[in-house]
Amino acid sequence: MSEFVIVPPAQPIVPVVGGGTFPVRRIFCVGRNYAAHAREMGGDPNREPPFFFTKPADAVISADNVPYPSATENLHHEMELVVAIGTGGSSIDASVALDHVYGYAAGVDLTRRDLQDEAKSLRRPWDMGKGFDASAPIGPIAAVTRIGHPSSGRIVLSVNDEVRQSGDLADMIWPVADVIAFLSRLVALQPGDLIYTGTPEGVGPVCRGEKVIGTIEGVGELAFTLA
Ligand code: MN
């Protein structure tokens, strides 16, 4: 019988604007939260309750180079506002939900669209389409004490300097407070949880060697090359 030495995994972290790091506990993502994107994915953008999926905590990556994942020929970018939870809670009321937010960041929900589409058509889970290694690029987290709570502002993603996605945070079907309220009825939120809050229209493929830049007005930006 062989012996194993199990080394405790490194704590996934995200840099904080002005210094320090934010330790990541879990990653939640909202499925559809902008009407035009819901339509482009064949959905109905009415206010049906938001739905959620997850990525592993160590899918976060804050680096100039993000590895192009295996097992896909159709990697898509989804530019999103990311909420960093600072105070936990269950069944949080929307009226106080923003008090639970530590800060915000610009992030990309990278998606193996071919695997996700296959999973959808076969009524299988999305995990391998969404939750792969390095599938959650993120910029530095700006604390609420620094930027407040952005409820509007341009959210833009470009690939090799060509704008692919352009929307406004004000167009979210469910604003951040409502997202926290819904999610905290499903799980007990804890400090370190990240919520990717959904993407505006214009999702599309990104290829090896291409440079992705995402900016959210009043929040920050991220930039990476698919290596
Ligand atoms: Mn997404």
List the helices and strands and how they pair.
Elements: E1 13-15, E2 21-23, E3 27-30, H1 35-40, E4 52-55, E5 60-61, E6 65-66, E7 75-77, E8 79-85, E9 101-108, E10 111-112, H2 113-121, H3 127-130, E11 136-137, E12 142-143, H4 144-147, E13 154-159, E14 162-168, H5 176-186, E15 194-196, E16 204-205, E17 211-216, E18 220-226
Bound molecules: manganese (II) ion.
Manganese (II) ion binds at residues 29, 78, 80, 109, 196, 198-199.
What's the quick description here?
The protein has 227 residues and is of the alpha+beta class. It has helices spanning 35-40, 113-121, 127-130, 144-147, 176-186; strands at 13-15, 21-23, 27-30, 52-55, 60-61, 65-66, 75-77, 79-85, 101-108, 111-112, 136-137, 142-143, 154-159, 162-168, 194-196, 204-205, 211-216, 220-226. It is 15% helix and 32% strand.
Characterize the structure shown.
This protein has a 6-stranded mixed sheet. A 5-stranded mixed sheet has the order 6-18-17-13-14, with no helix packed on it. Strands 10-7-16 form a 3-stranded antiparallel sheet. The protein has one domain (13-226): Fumarylacetoacetate hydrolase, domain 2 (Alpha-Beta Complex). A hairpin with a 2-residue loop joins β13 (154-159) and β14 (162-168). It has helices spanning 35-40, 113-121, 127-130, 144-147, 176-186, and strands at 13-15, 21-23, 27-30, 52-55, 60-61, 65-66, 75-77, 79-85, 101-108, 111-112, 136-137, 142-143, 154-159, 162-168, 194-196, 204-205, 211-216, 220-226. It is built from 5 helices and 18 strands. The longest helix has 11 residues, at 176-186. It is globular, with a radius of gyration of 17 Å. With 227 residues, the chain is of the alpha+beta class. It binds manganese (II) ion. Manganese (II) ion binds next to loops.
